[in-house]
Amino acid sequence: GENVEQHPSTLSVQEGDSAVIKCTYSDSASNYFPWYKQELGKRPQLIIDIRSNVGEKKDQRIAVTLNKTAKHFSLHITETQPEDSAVYFCAASRGKFGNEKLTFGTGTRLTIIP
Amino acid sequence: KAGVTQTPRYLIKTRGQQVTLSCSPISGHRSVSWYQQTPGQGLQFLFEYFSETQRNKGNFPGRFSGRQFSNSRSEMNVSTLELGDSALYLCASSAGERTGELFFGEGSRLTVL
Q1: What are phi and psi of B59, to 5 degrees?
Q2: Mutation test of the interface with chain A: which of B102, B103, B106, B108, choosing the one with the most A Cβ atoms within 10 A?
Q3: Is the predicted pLDDT of residue A99 greater than 80, yes or no?
Q4: How does pLDDT run across A71-91, given as a tens digit for each residue?
Q5: Per residue, what are the HEC states of B11-52?
Q6: Are B8 and B109 in contact (CB under 8 A)?
Q7: Confidence grade of residue A12 (pLDDT, cut at 50, 70, 90)
Q8: Do B94 and A97 touch (CB under 8 A)?
Q9: Does the pLDDT at position A1 exceed 90?
Q10: Contact A43/B43, CB-based, under 8 Å?
Q11: Comparing C-alpha atoms, which of B29, B47, B26 is closest to residue A101?
Q12: Beta-bridge partners for B43
């Protein structure tokens, strides 16, 4: 089955600096790669996703890059703000729509230092 | 639109008992998935239902089961509870046809003593 590894497990960044979280996946048939943000005590929420036919996607301060050959994808957050502090999960799926069965990484706890 | 609703929010059980958790998806969403969240393992996929059919299943023992009703509401059941079953159980619904986005509920926190 699919295996997703996520690094680092914790990350502290000065406010205004950039943060990068990396994930690798094992199943070459995976075609959908979402990122979820979970604030303390709250439910996970989708912040950005990318499909395998695209190499990069950006949404304001957040971007995701995908390298299918190396089977890894990364989340980039620029100009970090205190509200970016949360746990971030990457995931991979091979279904038609992507929501059928997600395999998640173990999460990265991001702390923004004011 | 109301979000995904899970009940109960918190529950405490003892080893050997069984538990049933309920999930009401967003109106119009036909896909419902269940995930187990623990501090060390992150989110692990349990199963996914679409139009009352289990479409996908994760690597959990047969003690974990689920079902979906005609109104898309879903339940999951865990029998013969073990200490290791203590976790946050998250339900998520999805529109399915056009997007991969999962909309999570707040979860049911199960403690097994």
Answers
A1: -95, 55
A2: B102
A3: no
A4: 999 999 999 999 999 999 999
A5: EEECCCCCEEEEEECCCCCCEEEEEEEECCCEEEEEEEEECC
A6: no
A7: very high
A8: yes
A9: no
A10: no
A11: B47
A12: B37
